């Protein structure tokens, strides 16, 4: 008698932000969606991760997994088209307002724009609040479909006034929530939602893992990173120093949450909690597809490179590393972590 197919294992995804490097996550999502043995039931995401998430879920609602893959490609093609006109123009032909208003050139070889953004804010330079990201998301994502996709979604942004992370979920998932999660304050005006200004979620949650702790999200979390944790050597040039500072800043919140998870796992595994307290905690299984290690040779300015060739190269890298993870770690899902948090992220 033929054996019935195994039931798909439920997982949560945690998608880090990283500008155009998010095309790596596009490839990861594409490959994971082809896997019939995994069931993505929850996603927590920030910035580019949030954009990938809403594109994926919008397509999933309309056309299943094939629709999700098609929607991701449509979104990234739109990103490439929005950036093409700016990337093709020499710096001398771009006015300062246009350059500063365009996130695709703000840190590219168009160094004049970067210099201007160091002394003038988007409130000075981007008077009309031009935002190609908004256009790309609006043209390709059906937010009603996202909200009714059946997959839990959590999007992180930074409350400018309180300095605390804000998690958008359920009916709060709108285009403004996604733009708030991706709002770099050197490039865009703060996104106001309900009268409250928000900046990029990466400052306080890149991505935020804690929303997965307090819901019925699966215990297995697959973390997709885009920023290197470790980088040997001391940066010496201004550009190298800025690159490394950005990596450390946008990894800090994630490192803190992973340290907390590791601490709770120790308490649970060594039976250091009494029965009443123990029932309030979950022993999570952590897995990682570490794009940061793959992309570590790329400079910061490539996070603004939206050329189609570059984006599709990153997609292929994402697919390759998702396949490697499936080959080597998928069997751990539902049983144990496939990484040692301390060894992978925390220990020196």
Your description of this structure?
The structure is a single chain. The chain is an alpha/beta fold. Helix content is 46%, strand content 14%. The chain has 13 helices and 8 strands. Strands 1, 2, 3, 4, 5, 6, 7 and 8 form an 8-stranded mixed sheet that branches. Strand 3 (152-159) and strand 4 form a beta hairpin. Helix 1 (22-33) crosses helix 12 (308-329) and helix 2 packs across helix 6 (132-140). The longest helix has 40 residues, at 48-87. The chain is globular and about 60 Å long. Residues 88-113 have low confidence and may be disordered.
Topology:
Layout: E1 9-15, H1 22-33, E2 38-45, H2 48-87, H3 96-101, H4 111-119, H5 122-125, H6 132-140, H7 143-147, E3 152-159, E4 165-169, H8 175-181, E5 191-193, E6 196-200, E7 220-225, H9 238-269, H10 275-278, E8 285-290, H11 291-294, H12 308-329, H13 341-346
Parallel strand pairs: 1-2, 1-7, 2-3, 7-8
Antiparallel strand pairs: 3-4, 3-6, 5-6
């Amino acid at each position: 008698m033929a054996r019935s197919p195994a039931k798909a294992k439920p997982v949560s995804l945690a998608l880090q932000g990283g500008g155009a490097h998010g095309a790596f996550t596009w490839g990861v999502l594409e490959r994971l969606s082809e896997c019939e043995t995994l069931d993505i039931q929850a996603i927590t995401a920030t910035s580019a991760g949030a954009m990938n998430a809403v594109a994926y879920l919008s397509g999933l609602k309309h056309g299943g997994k094939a629709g999700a893959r098609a929607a991701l490609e449509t979104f990234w093609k739109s990103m490439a088209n929005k950036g093409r006109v700016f990337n093709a123009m020499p710096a001398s032909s771009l006015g300062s307002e246009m350059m500063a208003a365009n996130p695709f050139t703000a840190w590219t070889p168009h160094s004049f724009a970067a210099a201007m953004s160091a002394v003038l804010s988007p409130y000075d330079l981007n008077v009309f609040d031009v935002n190609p990201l908004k256009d790309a998301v609006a043209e390709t994502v059906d937010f009603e479909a996202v909200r009714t996709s059946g997959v839990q979604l959590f999007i992180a942004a930074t409350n400018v006034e309180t300095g605390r992370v804000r998690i958008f979920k359920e009916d709060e998932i709108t285009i403004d929530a996604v733009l708030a999660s991706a709002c770099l304050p050197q490039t865009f005006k703060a996104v106001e939602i309900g009268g409250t200004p928000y900046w990029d979620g990466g400052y306080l949650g890149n991505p935020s893992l804690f929303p997965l702790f307090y819901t019925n999200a699966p215990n297995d979390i697959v973390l997709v990173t885009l920023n290197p944790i470790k980088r040997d050597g001391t940066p010496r040039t201004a550009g190298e120093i800025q690159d490394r500072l950005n990596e450390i800043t946008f990894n800090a919140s994630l490192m803190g949450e992973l340290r907390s998870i590791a601490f709770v796992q120790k308490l649970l595994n060594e039976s250091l909690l009494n029965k009443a307290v123990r029932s309030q905690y979950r022993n999570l299984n952590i897995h990682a597809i570490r794009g940061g290690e793959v992309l570590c040779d790329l400079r910061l300015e490539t996070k603004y490179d939206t050329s189609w060739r570059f984006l599709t190269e990153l997609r292929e890298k994402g697919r390759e590393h998702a396949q490697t993870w499936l080959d080597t770690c998928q069997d751990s899902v539902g049983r144990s972590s496939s990484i040692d948090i301390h060894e992978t992220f925390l220990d020196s």
